[in-house]
Amino acid sequence: MSISKSMVIEFCGLPGVGKSTIARALEEHGFVRVRIRGKAELLGYNLAYLVTYPIAFFKMLFCITKTSFAHGRFYRLFMNVFLDTNARIYKAKRGSMPMIVDQGHLQALLSLSYHKLSGEEVSAFLKYLPKPDRVFVFEAPADVRIAHLKERGYTPREEEASTDEWFRYLEDNMNTIMEYVTQKSAYPTTVISTDQPIEPVVEEIRATV
Prior knowledge:
CATH class: Alpha Beta
Strand order of the largest sheet: 2-3-1-4-5
Shape: globular
CATH superfamily: P-loop containing nucleotide triphosphate hydrolases
Number of domains: 1
Oligomer: single chain
Number of strands: 5
Structural class: alpha/beta
Strand content: 5-15%
CATH topology: Rossmann fold
Number of helices: 9
Distance between the termini: 12 Å
Helix content: 55-70%
């Protein structure tokens, strides 16, 4: 089946659920996984994003700065969360095919949270950000996610005491984010278990969009 429908699809889920793997699989079916290629695209799309969504730009920048002051990680958050996310979102909005953003604003919120988030904080963060056309939230049991992360050599960051504590911390905030997008927002959202072969996941996404 050939797909030509223009839409922005955002993936969300805890590390290890398979967001990037699913995005790559969907590329074989007419979907486009958004990538930022080089500094020219990164800076150019951020400038365009600033002009198009100035409130969203400065709101997210404020969150990045506030978080980095408390935890001393401005460069990583600014480059890998702020600039990269803005660029991906803007590039996706310009696409003429189904555009997959596997590291979007919902994932950025998860990256920025160093305490247990309230629903009010989630709502305030997302209020002015450009919305995707559809969100897919991926779920998998902790043992499956941990196994996937170990295969990739992914470990907790220096400031996180252990893998178990790291996952409990992330899971609390992921649940709050999921409650917001599935119950209290205008995000059309589908929740999919990735504790299954990838083919059924891909087919469910194709059938939904």
